[in-house]
From TrEMBL:
Gene3D superfamilies xref list: Glycogen Phosphorylase B
Signal peptide extent: none
Keyword Glycosyltransferase part of the UniProt annotation: yes
InterPro entries tied to this protein: Glyco_trans_9 (IPR002201), LPS_LOS_Heptosyltrfase (IPR051199)
CDD domains to which the protein is assigned, alphabetical: GT9_LPS_heptosyltransferase
Species classification: Bacteria, Pseudomonadati, Bacteroidota, Chitinophagia, Chitinophagales
Keywords: Glycosyltransferase, Transferase
Name of this chain's protein: Glycosyltransferase family 9 protein
Organism of this sequence: Ferruginibacter yonginensis
Pfam families: Glyco_transf_9 (PF01075)
Length: 334
């Protein structure tokens, strides 16, 4: 009889992508298992095309109905990769064997609030896979996954003609202020790069993108808010290089095996969340494939998620990143 396994990861884009190897490894290493996945309705597009999931469920402020439906499935195992109030309520209701990720709440508090680093130096993706070790599932080295539905592939007609021979992407968006590279510094970078550039971000970034693109509307294309997540992923898939804040698009770039220059402010790789490609891919690289730009100030990281404003009110972690050095790294990659 097939085993039924429910895997839970409610949000966000980046966290869902970082957890994606669990779906693949469980399905491929337990071929008789039926894999179900639960996430928020608002993040449906992130996994909708994933071939390793047999059935999807979506939370949309519908807990009572969701629990009723999930109980009918009679799961053998629940894998909780979120570990929050909602996921714990679901586990209690389903009354079956559960395995839950350790969020390292204490370690992250010590790092972000007291600058005491007792993090295990084990990437969040690897720790996610550790959660299913009791099922005999291990890391296959394949890295992250992001699958693009053919309907979300961006045609040449949707991009400027001058960008069709090749472009780089700068991801300007991020949920929180302390994770965003300042607009004036992005403008400086763009002015010093003689290469087609596409700006990516959400609708909330459209105005900032327009301001940046106005400095050179031929070279810079503002795609912020014009494409959905998977369409933006397809733009990334075809990019020569992706420069990104700590945001979901950075990890989508990793899943699509694009070279990344990651810009770190209020969050840092010390939280075990740096760009991740998997051991199989990285073992074939003869030179560094990605790079972290992080100043490692005494006040970094100040938060595990990001903040609405700099707690020190100077934002030196981003403001003091030298544009000339960043531009040089971009030119070397291009």
């Amino acid at each position: 009889m097939k085993k039924k396994i429910l895997i839970i990861r409610m949000s966000s884009i980046g966290d869902i992508v970082l957890a994606s190897p669990v779906l693949r490894c469980v399905k491929k290493q337990l071929p008789d298992a039926e894999v179900h996945f639960l996430t928020k309705q608002s993040f449906k597009i992130v996994t909708a095309a994933n071939p390793y999931v047999d059935k999807f469920f979506y939370y949309d402020d519908n807990m009572a109905e969701l629990l009723r439906v999930l109980k009918l499935e009679k799961y053998d195992y629940v894998i909780d990769l979120h570990n929050n109030i909602r996921s714990n309520k679901i586990k209690r209701s389903l009354k079956t064997t559960t395995y839950t990720i350790n969020k390292l709440t204490l370690q992250k508090f010590l790092l972000t609030q007291l600058n005491i680093d007792v993090m295990p130096n084990r990437h969040i993706t690897q720790r996610s896979i550790d959660t299913v070790l009791p099922l005999g599932v291990h890391d296959d080295g394949g890295g992250l996954d992001y699958f693009i539905d053919p309907k979300d592939e961006v045609s040449d007609d949707d991009l400027p003609t001058g960008h069709l021979a090749g472009y780089m992407v700068i991801v300007i968006g991020a949920t929180y202020f302390t994770k965003r590279f300042p607009q004036h510094k992005i403008i400086e970078v763009c002015q010093q790069i003689d290469h087609p550039i596409i700006l990516l971000g959400g609708k909330e970034d459209a105005e900032s993108g327009a301001t940046i693109a106005a400095t050179d509307p031929i070279k810079i294309y503002n795609a912020c808010g014009k494409f959905n997540i998977s369409e933006s992923a397809d733009i990334i898939k075809k990019a020569k290089l992706v420069v990104s804040n700590d945001t979901g698009m950075q990890y989508i770039a990793c899943a699509l095996k694009r070279p990344v220059i990651a810009l770190w402010g209020g969050t840092t790789p010390d939280l075990d969340v740096e760009p991740y490609y998997g051991s199989n891919f990285m073992s074939h690289q003869t030179k560094p494939f990605y790079e972290n730009i992080v100043l490692n100030l005494s006040c970094q990281p100040c938060s595990k998620y990001g903040l609405k404003k700099c707690p020190k009110e100077h934002f030196n972690c981003m403001e003091k990143i030298e544009v000339s050095k960043l531009v040089q790294k971009i030119k070397e990659r291009l």
